[in-house]
Amino acid sequence: MAALDLNLPVRDLVNEYGSPLWIYSSETIRERVELLRQFDVIRYAQKANSNVHILKLMRELGAVVDAVSAGEIERSLAAGFDARSDPPGVVFTADVMDKETLALVLRHGISVNVGSLHMLEYLGANAPGHSVWIRINPGFGHGHSNKTNTGGPHSKHGIWHADVASAIALIRKYGLRLEGLHMHIGSGVDYAHLAQVCGALVEVAKRVDCDFHAISAGGGLSVPCRRGDAGVDAAHYFQLWNDARYEVERHLGHAVRLEIEPGRFLVAEAGLLVASVHAIKQTPEHRFVLVDAGFNDLVRPSMYGSYHEISVLPADGSDAAVSRSVGTFAVAGPLCEAGDVFTQDSRGMIEDRDFPEPLVGDLLVFHDVGAYGASMSSNYNSRPLAAEVLCEGTKCRLIRRRQTIDDLLSLENC
Ligand code: LLP
């Protein structure tokens, strides 16, 4: 687990920027990008972490981006991506599209990865000749929770595999240009299942009576969340998709670009959330450590029962593993809501953890939160968004200031 060894100056940064605080390591992001270099295109799914400085780093590393909203398109442009570059710097993926987003897509020449027949009809009628991908739901999926499974009959995402012929008919009707086929079936890796997904994409490619130039493997590459868990074998992952690409190339009779669209894999292990311990209280069942971060900051444990490693940084600068005895704790936040607990399973049952005894004033560090951490934060209980810091070695800089209550109130000045 790389995040435990990030070696970031956590205490100094909290002294400077306050708590709670997100801290990211650019080296870890760079290392993860390197692991996927075999793919022709690494298209970062920015929903995982869309801070514009992270996007700029991705651009420097040669990645391009996927955007799923007008806001994410604007972020991509602010980070310097060009939708008209080769390969396109931005692709817009969605199942629906509003007027404002259509205008943005047209103004910047952004290819659209279409997830429903209605959206294809809407785009075709308003922008005949536009460049499109089709996102296909192969009829099965995979997820670390039902909420992250994006394939199969229970998923709202993508064009159902049996409707591909209707999609092609719409593409012809409006003279849309088919750039590629896309399949993202969810998060988490199981190679046997992945082989099935690759097979499904090849099968669809063979019955698409229309030329195209790219395929996208989507995202979903998992990260090890507990010490000792195995990470993704990027070479194995590539090999399965590369074989699929060759089959599609043989069928089409020309070269096909192979894209991958990871979010979590590139940034999860690069991020920490640091919180301060404000109280410790005992009930007959649990010893609660109460910190100043809540599910308004990190919602994954409350939403999916996600596990994040937690470590203790004593206020006196000592090493917790040496200076403290180990106890059993539940970790919770400041929100006025019972579910504001970081140590819970997917049914909401509290799961106590063993770690060195924290004291009021210590810092707790939540690991592997660079993906779907800050990007899923909210202002619940009128709590401002926490600051974000990006480190290159021990050189760190603020990449988002802490939101203020005045920022929140100013939206309501009307
Ligand atoms: N491409 C598409 C079309 C997607 O819908 C997603 C994720 C990705 C790529 C990137 O998936 P990744 O490589 O990050 O697994 N909030 C949840 C994850 C939701 C993912 C939604 N779509 C979480 O915290 O686990």
Features:
414 residues; alpha/beta; 13 helices; 18 strands; 29% helix; 22% strand; globular; binds ligand LLP
Give a written overview of the molecule.
The protein has 414 residues and is α/β, with parallel strands linked by helices. The chain has 13 helices and 18 strands. The chain has helices spanning 10-17, 26-35, 52-60, 70-78, 99-108, 117-126, 164-173, 191-207, 234-252, 264-267, 300-304, 320-323, 405-411; strands at residues 21-25, 41-45, 64-67, 90-94, 111-114, 131-137, 159-160, 177-182, 214-216, 257-260, 271-282, 287-291, 310-313, 326-332, 353-356, 363-366, 387-392, 395-400. Strands 1, 11, 12, 13, 14, 15, 16, 17 and 18 form a nine-stranded mixed sheet that branches. Strands 2-3-4-5-6-8-9-10 form an eight-stranded parallel β-barrel, surrounded by five helices. Helix 6 links the parallel strand 5 (111-114) and strand 6 (131-137). The longest helix is centred in the middle third of the chain and has 19 residues, at 234-252. Ligand LLP binds next to helix 10. It is an enzyme of class 4 (lyase). Keywords: Amino-acid biosynthesis, Decarboxylase, Lyase, Lysine biosynthesis, Pyridoxal phosphate.
